[in-house]
């Protein structure tokens, strides 16, 4: 219930509406990042216990976010712009999206070779993290064909990598607001 006091139902609806308006306005990636940093409730679906902003993936790379979950899973998160084209007309992965996928693949190599050093750099202990996974957030589902979305969701982009569209992230916020509304009526 402490969560409910911090994010009142009306405030969650406002945040969700602002986020939806932002992703519909063709923002720069940095604007989206700043919004998410200001509203960490966006990561609620991951059950975070620690949220990192621009965490280093050792010396040469940075993720946009790192989220350590209550299940001891560390997600390194790459966001692209909401207006990123996800697929070509032939439903193959677009070059824009491929850059994000390639970045995550690079992180996977670093993590595979230097897991302990990465965790140390993030001020985490080996016991704090059971698994390291990746999340790529880009584009919007409503601007992508059904066939292309199915292909993106079903085909592994990279090892231990999940893909999500920005409008899916907005829907999670609206759902959370509805769930809190239901709880307040109890």
Description:
The protein is of the alpha/beta class and 186 residues long. It is built from six helices and seven strands. A five-stranded mixed sheet has the order 1-4-5-6-7. A hairpin with a 3-residue loop joins strand 2 (56-57) and strand 3. Helix 2 packs antiparallel against helix 6. The longest helix has 27 residues, at 95-121.
Compact description:
By secondary structure, the protein is an alpha/beta fold. The chain contains 6 helices and 7 strands; from the N terminus they run αααβββββαβαβα.
The chain-level structural class is alpha/beta
What's the total number of strands?
A: 7
Give the C-alpha Rg.
Answer: 17 Å
| Distance, first to last CA | 12 Å
Helix run count: 6
Oligomerization status of the protein chains: single chain
**Low-pLDDT windows of residues:** none
- Averaged pLDDT: 88
Major sheet: arrangement of strands = 1-4-5-6-7
Helix content: 40-55%
> Largest sheet at a glance?
5 strands, mixed
List the helices and strands and how they pair.
Blueprint: H1 2-6, H2 9-23, H3 29-38, E1 48-53, E2 56-57, E3 61-62, E4 65-69, E5 73-79, H4 95-121, E6 131-137, H5 146-154, E7 161-164, H6 166-184
Parallel strand pairs: 5-6, 6-7
Antiparallel strand pairs: 1-4, 2-3, 4-5
Helix pairs in contact: 2-6
């Amino acid at each position: 219930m402490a969560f409910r006091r911090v994010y009142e139902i009306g405030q969650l609806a406002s945040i969700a509406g602002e986020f939806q308006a932002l992703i519909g306005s063709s923002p720069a990636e940095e604007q989206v990042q700043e919004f998410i940093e200001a509203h960490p409730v966006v990561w609620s679906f991951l059950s975070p216990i620690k949220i990192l902003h621009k965490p280093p993936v050792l010396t040469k790379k940075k993720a946009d976010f790192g989220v350590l979950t209550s299940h001891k899973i560390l997600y390194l998160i790459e966001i692209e712009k909401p207006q990123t084209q996800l697929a070509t007309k032939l439903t193959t992965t677009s070059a824009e999206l491929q850059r994000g996928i390639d970045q995550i693949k690079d992180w996977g190599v670093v993590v595979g070779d230097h897991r302990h050093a990465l965790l140390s750099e993030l001020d985490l202990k080996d016991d704090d993290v059971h698994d390291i996974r990746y999340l790529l957030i880009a584009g919007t589902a409503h601007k992508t064909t059904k066939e292309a979305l199915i292909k993106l969701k079903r085909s592994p982009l990279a090892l231990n990598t999940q893909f999500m569209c920005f409008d899916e992230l907005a829907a999670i916020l609206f759902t959370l607001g509805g769930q809190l509304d239901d709880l307040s009526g109890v």
